Every structure is written in structure tokens, then in C-alpha cells.
Give the backbone structure.
Amino acid sequence: MIQTTALIDGNNFYASCEQSLDPSLIGRPLVILSNNDGCIISRNPEARNLGIKMGKPYFKISSQLRKLKVVVRSSNYALYGDMSQRLMSLLRKHCEQLEIYSIDEAFASFSSSSEQELHQWARNLRILAIQQLGIPIAIGFGTTKVQAKLANFLAKTIPANAGIFNLLTAEDPEYWLKRIAIEDVWGIGNKLAYWCRMKGINNALQLRDMNTQELQSKSGITGTRIQQELRGESCIPLTPKSKPKQETCVSRSFRRPITTLDELLQAMARRVIIASEKLRRQRQLAGAITIFIRTSPFLPSFYSQSASKKLDIPTDDTSILLKETMELTREIFEPYKALIKAGIIMQKLQSKKHIQQHFFINHNSKIQKKRENLTRVIDQLNNRYGHGTVTWAICGSINEWQMGSKDQSNVSTTLINKIPIIKAE
DNA sequence: TCTGGGGTCCTAGGACCC
DNA sequence: TCTGGGGTCCTAGGACCC
């Protein structure tokens, strides 16, 4: 019996989440915008059929969208995160081994099942996802992760496949591989796809059969692994246990460019506070931090700057991280640069469970405990009454240059006062 | 006026050591 | 002061993913 790998994912996940909570959206073209209402990051089939492309800047096509009567929503990540957890717990119930790969995707593996059993299992899972979550899913089968990924692509994009495709048992696998453009192969990005096209490699089948040496010389081990997997030899293993994060980043754009140190300090303070909260939620400590600022990459005289600092003692303490960040910010600030984005990366993360004891610091001191208690209370208040209820004065009050989203759906599965209400006639 | 945010992996090259 | 080869570790940057 051959080992089978499956890739299961939610179709147009963000758009489907919105439709699931607001059925009036079903059947109407719908797009979801990125943070700051920057660009299109999800769209339902109705919007896709109107020719609306992924990644398009919103300001360039907003009038066209109005004309076409497309519904536009700002993104609501709290909602998508919650729906993701529900989807994953459904999948866990129905898979032996599951690796959660992204907010809307998971790999599964099966040691022994007949083709019919697998197909029946997949049909059943699709029904459950619709019934319990209102989210359509697609399922692809292969021997390796790359094959499963491509099978999933064929399940979704070829209507006749109805959301399920098995590359192992397909009558003519080569016919199907030929139908997958080189850009659509998992692991082949812009640069590699362009190089492939130049060489006359235009689809997944040609990539599978091309000269390995040549591929290796261009893309190293990453490219040859994809080729091996296309040929059915597994070299990207399933990793069901999620690894602890190596770094955590909080980065945001401004609604309008900022040029003063005061504004930048406030912006950085907000980011480091969010980042510290993230660390505590993940039960991790940062051993180093990097901050960065940049001007618009779409304008001439692009400017970007960053600065890092190693911390003597790894920490998740907001006030310590704030102090370090403020110092770094003062160091790299330059006047008259129209900054549009700033962020902080927490690095050299380690688990809070086994803290490396410092010779001069007593981690169990009274003062240390008091600080931790204060932080815990602040976190609890913010969780309960909304983010930013209690915060540091350095953040300033709400400013016009901060991020903005206009059309967020006013529903939530995580805040009690925004639970959707069903009215009886 | 307006172009997202958060990650991982790999590689080349520098610093350092014997 | 100059000479040689070989190894490890770290870092920055590129490419890619969703």
C-alpha cells in the first residue's frame, strides 16, 4: 500500500468566512482588502469571474469595483483566526496525522486506504465543513506534499473535479501535470518561474523532467527537492508537531507618511507593546530585537534603515522592551524622510519554561514577581475589554496617521457584543 | 491621497580558530 | 613578518510561502 498525502484547504478562505457569517453576501461578488485597505487579498468566484485580480492596489480599482457592484470588506483577522481554529479542530477529528500549514491549509497522511475509501472520506469531509462552518474546502491527494498541493490546485480550478482530485489514481497524470503552469507550482516563485520560462520550461510536467544539474545550479537544493517530490520521492516530511516560533514580527503601514521623531516613537511604542503581548501569549522570551523603518518603495529615493540589539537577559517584559526600542528608534531616526512603514522583530526566541538563569538576576525576586503580576493584570484587562484599554502613555492618543480600515464587517465570533443576531420574521 | 503583514529556509561570505 | 589549508559559527540578504 502506498503512503498517501493530502492537502486540505478552505476555498477563498477570508471571503468564505465573511459569507458564512453574512449570508446576504452569497451569490454577490465580494473582495477582502489587506490591512490599511491596501490591496485585494481574497475574492470569491463571482468577483474572480469579473476579472478582478489578487494583489491589486485598492485605490487603483475602487471605481471599477463600484461600477461592477462588488461588495468590499476590510479584513477582520480576529474572525478568520477563530474560523481557522474551528476548521482545524474538525480536520483533527478526521485525520490520523495532521500538519497545520497556514491559516487555511493542512497536510494529512494516510498509511492504508483504498482509492474508494479516500474519495468517500473526502466527500464526507467537504459536507461536514459546509454544514458546521459554512466553508467550502478542496482536497488533493498525492504521494508527496508537492503532489498533494498540485492535486489540490486541480481539485479547485477544474470544476469537473468538484473539489477532490487524486493525482495517484488519475488515468493520465502527465496530462494533468501539463495543465499546471510553472508559476502555479508550489515553491516556484517569480524569479524561478521567469528563469524556467526562458529555458522553455512552462509547466509542471516539464519541470519534473528537466535536467536536474541545470536546476540545481540555479536554485540549489530547494529547486531539486521540488523536482524530486514531483517525481514522487518524498523529501519534505510531514511535521505534525508545530515547532516553536524562531522570531515574531509586528509591522504596520501608516495611513499617511510621517516625518517627525515624536510620531515615530509613538508608532514604535505601539508595535513593541503588541509584540510583547504576542511573546507572552506564546510563552516565549526574546533574546534580541531588530527595528526597521522605510519610505515608500513605489517612489524614487527609497530609503530603509534598521537597527538591532542583543539583550543581556531574554525577556517578555513590555517596559524593558519599550526602553530598548525607544533607544534604537532615536538612533536610526533621520528627519525629512517620509516614512510609510515601521516594525519590530523579536528574535532569538526561547521558551519561557526553561529560562537560563542569570548570575546577577534573581528571577524569583519580589520585585520581579510584582512586575509580572502587573503585566498579567494589564493583559487580562485588555483581553476582556478590548485591545488598548490599558496602555503606556508614550503611545499617545488615537492619531490620524495610524492604520485605518473602513469597511470591516461588524460581526465577530470572538466578541460577545458583535455576535451575529438572527431575527425571526 | 491611496500599493498588507508575518513567517521559514537556504546560501554566500566574513570572522575566527587551529 | 610572512606563509597554508581546513573547519565552524554567525549574519545578512534573497527567495519563497500564505
